[in-house]
Amino acid sequence: MLSEKEKIDTLTHLVIELNLVRDLDILMEHILSQARRFVNADAGSIYIAEEDTLKFTYTQNDTLQKRLAKGEKLIYTTFSLPINEQSMAGFVAATARLLNVPDVYKIAPTEPYRFSKEYDKASQYTTCSALTIPLKSARGVLLGILQIINAQDEAGRVVAFSEKDEKMMIHFASIAAVALERAQMTRAIILRMIRMAGLHDPKETGAHVNRVGGFAVEIYEKWALKRNLQQKEIDTNRDILRMAAMLHDVGKVAISDIILKKPGRFNRDEFEIMKQHTLLGAQLFLGGQSAYDDAAAKVALTHHERWDGNGYPGYVDIQTGEPVPGHLDPEGLPLGKKGEDIPLFGRIVALADVYDALSSNRIYKEAWDEPEVLATIEKEAGYHFDPELVEIFFSSIDMIKSIQNRYKENDKNFKPKSNSQLS
Hints:
Helix content is 48%, strand content 11%.
């Protein structure tokens, strides 16, 4: 439990810490963790404002987490609330006022808002005190809602949030909102790049790349924990990988529509052109000034390599696209990279991308049945995929499916066309 001096000292470092995080999802995790730490709260959630609704986006709960086996994560579903005064989060969003409720089960009947007991019933958790704070930009635009639950005293007993807690969280929210707005802008820029590629390739959607990014981070985290890496290093790499994974196919923006939208299978020459999206994507990040650029280049270049060496583009000079001497097949083409010669992030995104491609509707195919998808992933361990990563993937399947449900496609107008091939 932080002292008042520690809280003030921590606030001064918070601006730097939060602004080091680029990815929106990972930033929300940091914001919620820090907010709960400041007021010693057992649980909390973040809602993101989307037009006239609030989307329940991220949650943490220490009590529920302790019920899980070591290494497991809390799985939750997302939902939306209208911005009105009927719920606590909606009330704060509608009025832009902080709301401190000592006991949600004793809200006065004269108040317009109510607490929904369904979550407590479903999770066998008891919510008592709740502090709900608006997250607003410097221009006063509502970005979202931060809600922290069940303040605890030094003995671990649930107590009401104090006036000091309110003041501290108002300062915290103003700092967090700046970082949140920046991360939302970064995510928007990435998704615009994806939409540019999507003008050529209909399967490059925001939902697809968000799923691939989420899967990749989940796989990486378990890989890193197996190796007892420091949490600080894990957090940094999760942030880098999340954005690099989202940009894995951005090089398709430079591939002709004639190739990308061909309804049938590619001939050899067409496939050679298609394969260039890996190199073209990597070249977009040449001369980068950060670890994000370096990781994005590696992922773009290597996410179609295979563990058995039969992938592409293989050993090529990223700047010129020319084959690397000494790494040529009998026809003079670049040999594929093999095993751990493929960068870790590329191996992870290869698995995440194929799983999502097989599991999702595409303009040229329907989603495969889940058992068929999982059997294919298992069969390709040691051939297409790093076998250790496949093992980690299966150990994380419940969280993988949760991420899949969080970022669903809009398939209302889906009409499968003739078969093509995954690329």
